[in-house]
Amino acid sequence: MRDYHTHTFRCKHAQGDVEDYAKYAVEYGIDVLGVSDHTALPDNWIPEIRMDISELPDYVEAIEKAQKKYPQLRILKGMECEYEKKYYSFFQEELLGKWGFDYLILGQHLFYCDGQLVYFWKDIKGAKELKVYTDLLVSGMESGLFTFVAHPDAFGSFYLRWDEEAKACSRYIIEAAEAYHLPLEINGHGFRKGEIKTAQGVRLKYPLPPFWELASQYNVQVLVNSDAHQPQEVGAFLTEGQELVERYGLEIIDLLEFLEL
């Protein structure tokens, strides 16, 4: 079993350090663990949801230390990033270059719309915000920086309808994934976030089954991760994510093989 999306205390909304996640992963029977905290940024943009830039060396050291302590576990060095064009050189030259990260995840949690910052997990918004989210996500997919897209259907947290707008934006994301050969993630953290009431009934914020049903009509690949924010969440809800894979006949990939590491 493998899990490529986990966090540490440095992002300020998770608990535990790399060794804590590694210890639990070994106990849980996981053989490859991807550590992928919310990235540091050179200007410390939105510092309350990410590590400080000064913590980057310590983060890398913690991953290397855990790898030595648990040689039976393959630990990959990753970061989860919001795409903003101004950070392109930092992602490319610093994270992938200087620090030698194995992979970067595209995870768009917030974005500007009409000068206002929108957080997908706490703001209920409309079609305009959905389009801005989608356009920014696809721009990130086009950048060539990222290995896979985290929770592409997380717009279900702020856009409550499954209508023509939602379908059009979903197609745009899925078509970009197909064009740029970027796997899409079924995200286990969504199962932990509980349900939300919509005009079409009660549902999870994400994963969104109709999004994945639509994805099944395209030549795209998917992977399932826990998005663990506590050590005991490593491997959580992988089974439920796998059920979506099987329900819609999706093509699942293993990231280690995809990266050819």
Helices and strands in order:
Elements: E1 2-3, H1 18-28, E2 32-38, H2 56-69, E3 74-81, H3 88-98, E4 103-106, E5 110-113, E6 116-119, H4 127-142, E7 148-149, H5 164-180, E8 184-187, H6 189-192, E9 195-198, E10 201-204, H7 209-215, E11 221-225, H8 238-248, E12 251-252, H9 255-259
Parallel strand pairs: 1-2, 2-3, 3-4, 4-7, 8-11, 11-12
Antiparallel strand pairs: 5-6, 9-10
Number of distinct helices? 9
Helix-strand sequence? EHEHEHEEEHEHEHEEHEHEH
CATH architecture: Alpha-Beta Barrel
Give the class-level CATH name: Alpha Beta
pLDDT < 50 stretches = none
Structural class: alpha/beta
Specify the overall morphology. Answer: globular
The CATH fourth-level homologous superfamily: Metal-dependent hydrolases
Share of residues in helices: 25-40%
Largest sheet: 5 strands, parallel
Count the E strands.
Answer: 12
Overall residue-averaged pLDDT value: 94
Radius of gyration: 17 Å
Q: Give the DSSP E fraction (strand runs of 2 or more residues).
A: 15-25%
What name is given to the CATH topology? TIM Barrel
